[in-house]
Amino acid sequence: MKKRKFPGSFYNPITAFGTTVIFLNIFLIIFLLLFDYLSGSPKAYMGIVTFIVLPFFLFCGIAIALFGIWREHNRIKSGKSREKIFPVIDLNDKKYRSALILLSIGLIVLIIFSAFGTFKAYEYTDSDEFCGEICHKVMNPEYTTYQYSPHARVGCVQCHIGSGTEWYVRAKLSGIYQIYSVLFNKYSKPIPTPVHNLRPAQGTCEQCHWPKYFYRESEITNTYFLSDKNNTKWNLTLLMKIGGGNEETGVIQGIHWHMNLSNKVTYMMTDDSRQEIPWIKSEHSDGTVTIYKTTDFPVTDDMVKNGLKRRMDCIDCHNRPAHIYHPPSSSINRELAINKINPKLPFVKSLAVKILDTPYSSKEIALDSIKIAINNFYNLNYPEIAASMKDEISNSIIGIQTIFEKNYFPSMNVSWKGFPNNIGHLYAKGCFRCHDGKHQTEDGKVLSRDCNTCHTILAQELKKGELRISLGGVDYIHPVNIGDAWKNENCSNCHSN
Ligand code: HEC
Ligand code: HEC
Ligand code: HEC
Ligand code: HEC
Ligand code: HEC
Ligand code: HEC
Fold first, then answer.
1. Whose CA is nearest to atom 16 of ligand 5?
2. Which of 70, 148, 255, 452 would disulfide-bridge 473, Cβ 3.0–4.6 Å?
3. For residues 105 and 231, what is the distance between their CA atoms, to the nearest angstrom?
4. From ligand 6's centre to the CA of 128, what distance in Å?
């Protein structure tokens, strides 16, 4: 007998079959991994195929091969050894030749089909259908808000994965964990934020937005409605000092000052959601370092040494570029401003805000309750209006229901309350996490909270016909009299609930 490389028990048809399965799967895994990596737009959940489905078959192959070895081993022990494991193929015989040709064709077809099949599976993991069926419930809040965001045409992967091997692998691993947690109902509701394995903004945001080239200021006009009977309307126009710039152009200013490559802002947080920031270090391009500490409580060197720190990047302000859960007040203001909800309906602003922020156990219950609550309110308190403004009332019900569907997700416990937007300072601390007027250097320099630092208040019209306007900025007047509270307290103290 010929000298064999492996023990005799390795040579049997079952093990040969198992080995073929093993190699076929290894080939497919390598093929798909290479393809996914080189394709430039890696698919987050392709991992299901490459790391779960194919390896499963791979292990089946191994099991079959081992079973073959074990069986053969027993046969050999019981004396039933095989002289020839494989059939003798005599290529001079026409019958054998045809059989061999047929077999080879079959094998090639099999390889092509399994490559094609796995490729289809691979495409499927990237489809909406897949998302719809496998993670729809879980990702519904993010997916819905994304569709109404300025990034609706930017793929999830472009922010959540980006390119590069390290993040590619990390995303694959977390993708597998996500699937596991969905299948076994282990995920938390809501999905926690911030996302810790999001890659640094240089690899995502900065691929499309180049901080060096933000110069302009941009004007925002907001229309507000108070919670009184008349839903009193007022306007505010802000000129946002977006700024930016680079050394070559000379101007480095405005809000994107933080992001200028030569400036480095590092902060220490005391909570997971990065909302409490007692210590900030600002390093300028000329080498000067400024350290600001909160005056709310003493910040010791030990706290700073052991504290959790982070270098500020785009996501520290733009934490919700694609998934914005709007507070009810701002969504209702917008609907009122465009007359989708009619501001002539008495108390409609305060009523709508209250109804939206009531906790509901499911979307269906919420939509029904909104309808009942609005109808009841006008039927009971304003029967004449309920009769004469029937259409306006039913339109406002639809308006409020639409706001609910886009911003509240009871099944995942998601709403604006758990997901603060760090741009601004009204409904969440946002910029005032640092610019609250309470962060100071040792020698008393305060991190500015002046109302004209980040924007110029170009105009404010509290009462019709009483427009105050100035290019240099007008003094802000809070719409309802709260004394000096708005000058000393964070706006979000009152506005975030
Ligand atoms: C413009 C970039 C961008 C796009 C596009 C994008 N996301 Fe996000 N996503 C983010 C950022 C930034 C965060 C929050 C980061 C943080 O606060 O740490 C986030 C957070 C999340 C979270 C965690 C929960 C939360 O709300 O904070 C999930 C889940 C998520 N995104 C899913 C998706 C899905 C699904 C898509 C595509 C339908 C998508 N994202 C598209 C940038 C993006
Ligand atoms: C694949 C390209 C791409 C990536 C990646 C990307 N964006 Fe955008 N972004 C866009 C496009 C396109 C728009 C819409 C521009 C427009 O309408 O003028 C936009 C708009 C914006 C706006 C303006 C929104 C508004 O209300 O007008 C902001 C802010 C923004 N992106 C921030 C980010 C941040 C932060 C990230 C990283 C988390 C990011 N973008 C990642 C392409 C991208
Ligand atoms: C200090 C907080 C902060 C940081 C950090 C920051 N931004 Fe902004 N960004 C803002 C604010 C505030 C605005 C104006 C928002 C508005 O008007 O709604 C803005 C506006 C923008 C816009 C819209 C510009 C326009 O002309 O309308 C884009 C795009 C943008 N940022 C991208 C980025 C990118 C990319 C990064 C990271 C390199 C970044 N931002 C870092 C606060 C920040
Ligand atoms: C993590 C803390 C932190 C947060 C959050 C933060 N800033 Fe700042 N900001 C700073 C520091 C530090 C400086 C620079 C102070 C210095 O060194 O002089 C600064 C400076 C500025 C400046 C002045 C730049 C100049 O021209 O000199 C503007 C404008 C500004 N921030 C706007 C914003 C806006 C708008 C937001 C919210 C979207 C925001 N900041 C959020 C820490 C922060
Ligand atoms: C550190 C920067 C900064 C400072 C200081 C600042 N603001 Fe703002 N403010 C912003 C940003 C950023 C926005 C968000 C613009 C947007 O909605 O896109 C904003 C928005 C607002 C809005 C509109 C809010 C809304 O969503 O309807 C008002 C009102 C306002 N600021 C008033 C003030 C007043 C009053 C002061 C002085 C006490 C002040 N701001 C100081 C950065 C700042
Ligand atoms: C002491 C509590 C308190 C503080 C602090 C406060 N506000 Fe208000 N704010 C109110 C009340 C009460 C209203 C009236 C709400 C209504 O009529 O719906 C209001 C209304 C507003 C509105 C109109 C809101 C809407 O939804 O139409 C804006 C804008 C506003 N405040 C801005 C600010 C800003 C900016 C700050 C911080 C610089 C601030 N407020 C601080 C209590 C406060």
1. 424
2. 452
3. 78
4. 41
